[in-house]
Design goal:
Layout: H1 2-40, E1 45-56, E2 59-65, E3 71-77, E4 86-90, H2 100-112
Length: 113
């Protein structure tokens, strides 16, 4: 009789150990992938200043310029308020200097389409 009672106990313990191992492996994998995302997402940031804001189609477009001709645009709802004067944006130096007038024209052209 003791032999029959011990089989379910050992089976239950084996299943418990297997599930514990799977849970630890899953938690370790998620934690290491979260650290990998943090390492790869560290970007160099620069201070961008407001160059222009454009209103159209119930939307506000804030155009920022930063170091080494870095250009950044933020699209906000019209009701969100005015664009901030300074903004921390990703450092993306442009190879060719851009004209602010051409950027504004292209944005306004997108609103017309």
């Amino acid at each position: 009789m003791d032999n029959l009672d011990s089989k379910p106990f050992f089976l239950a313990m084996t299943i418990l150990i297997i599930f514990t191992y799977i849970l630890i492996a899953a938690l370790t994998t998620n934690a290491s992938s979260a650290y990998a995302e943090d390492d790869s997402s560290t970007k160099v940031m620069t201070t961008c200043r407001l160059a222009s804001q454009i209103l159209g189609n119930n939307q506000r477009v804030c155009v920022f310029t930063g170091a080494n001709n870095t250009q950044y645009r933020e699209y906000l709802p019209y009701d969100a308020g005015v664009c901030p004067r300074e903004f921390q944006c990703p450092y993306r130096p442009n190879e060719k200097p851009f004209s602010l007038k051409s950027v504004i024209k292209s944005i306004k052209k997108q609103f017309r389409e």
